[in-house]
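Human:
Focus on the backbone:
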Amino acid sequence: MTQRPQAVATLKIDAAHVRVWEYRFAPGAETGWHRHGHDYVVVPMLDGELLLEEPGGSSRTAALRAHEPYTRPAGVEHNVVNANAYEFAFLEVELLR
């Protein structure tokens, strides 16, 4: 099995009430499996598709549009993979309170 490259996460804001990360994915790069400890908002920086690998072996593709945010609750578990032939990026805002 070929190992995927890792997405690059850069911490942009780390405050008592909010944490903001920028995620950049080379083509085919992944976050690795993780569970979100807080409610969060994702703001795509580009149009594109992400492959979401989910527990139990299921997966789905999500179409994202630049500057169209969406929110998810704490507890979401997945591996996020860039399904595009180009670099993809988004901001993730964790709501700490």
